[in-house]
Design brief:
The structure holds two protein chains of two kinds. By secondary structure, chain A is mostly beta strands. Chain A has no helices and eleven strands. In chain A, strand 5 (43-51) and strand 6 form a beta hairpin. Chain B is 0% helix and 54% strand. Chain B has strands at 3-7, 10-14, 19-26, 32-38, 44-50, 56-58, 64-68, 73-78, 87-94, 104-105, 109-114. In chain B, a hairpin with a 5-residue loop joins strand 4 (32-38) and strand 5 (44-50). The relative contact order of chain B is 0.33. The model of chain B has no long low-confidence stretch (mean pLDDT 92). The chains are: A mainly beta, B mainly beta. Chain A binds chain B through residues 4, 6, 9, 31, 33, 40-43, 45, 48, 50, 56, 58, 88, 90, 92, 94, 97-107, 109, and chain B through 9, 32, 34, 36, 41-46, 49, 51, 90, 94, 99-101, 103, 105-108.
């Protein structure tokens, strides 16, 4: 089945540690996205990538980093510089950024203790 | 800049009753419009979208939405609620010329179904 996978589903880390969230897609989509979801705030764009080896900051990129070495993979690193990292993180993809619909993965819930 | 307003962070209806979730957008040019559903601790699933053509759009699970340009609205409805409809619903817009990276979400409406 084609789709987007995110791992792990739940992640616990101590304050001050960097952590990397995985996102993989086998839809052959060019564009991939990372969102952060907090209660009552909808989804906010962290980073997006239109092609391999290229990515752009979204609305809340501070304290996060990404890489796009392969078309199917777009990992997100939450660094110790992110002041409030506890949240639900969603990865999405679309055929290319000129199209209208994004498809979402199941999400990773990160809790920083 | 575009924005999306969902009226009511929580909506509660009885099983079998009409579901109405409201969404208004602010944009000088009508955007593409979407409704997504999110079940607890899961990702978002596309319910329906409006890009062009007929303004009444039918989606999955018996939902539909009507684009009304004069009211800048894209309200989501379902004639008869089912217990399985309990979830959070997000309205989203993206400009016609800008591409998917400019998808803007509303704050979400949590739908509760009473037996």
């Amino acid at each position: 089945d084609g789709g987007i996978t995110q791992s792990p589903k739940y992640l616990f880390r101590k304050e001050g540690q960097n952590v990397t969230l995985s996102c993989e897609q086998n839809l052959n989509h060019d564009a991939m996205y990372w969102y952060r979801q907090d209660p009552g705030q909808g989804l906010r764009l962290i980073y997006y990538s239109q092609i391999v080896n290229d990515f752009q900051k979204g609305d809340i990129a501070e304290g996060y980093s990404v890489s796009r070495e392969k078309k199917e993979s777009f990992p997100l690193t939450v660094t110790s510089a992110q002041k409030n990292p506890t949240a639900f993180y969603l990865c999405a993809s679309s055929p290319w950024t000129g199209t209208d619909t994004q498809y979402f993965g199941p999400g990773t819930r990160l809790t920083v203790l | 800049a575009q924005s999306v307003t969902q009226l009511g962070s929580h909506v509660s209806v009885s099983e079998g009753a009409l579901v109405l979730l409201r969404c208004n957008y602010s944009s000088s040019v009508p955007p593409y419009l979407f409704w997504y559903v999110q079940y607890p601790n899961q990702g978002l699933q596309l319910l329906l979208k409006y890009t062009t053509g007929a303004t009444l759009v039918k989606g999955i699970n018996g939902f539909e939405a009507e684009f009304k340009k004069s009211e800048t609205s894209f309200h989501l409805t379902k004639p008869s609620a089912h217990m399985s409809d309990a979830a959070e619903y997000f309205c989203a817009v993206t400009p016609r010329e800008g591409g998917a990276q400019k998808l803007v979400f509303g704050q979400g409406t949590r739908l509760t179904i009473n037996p």
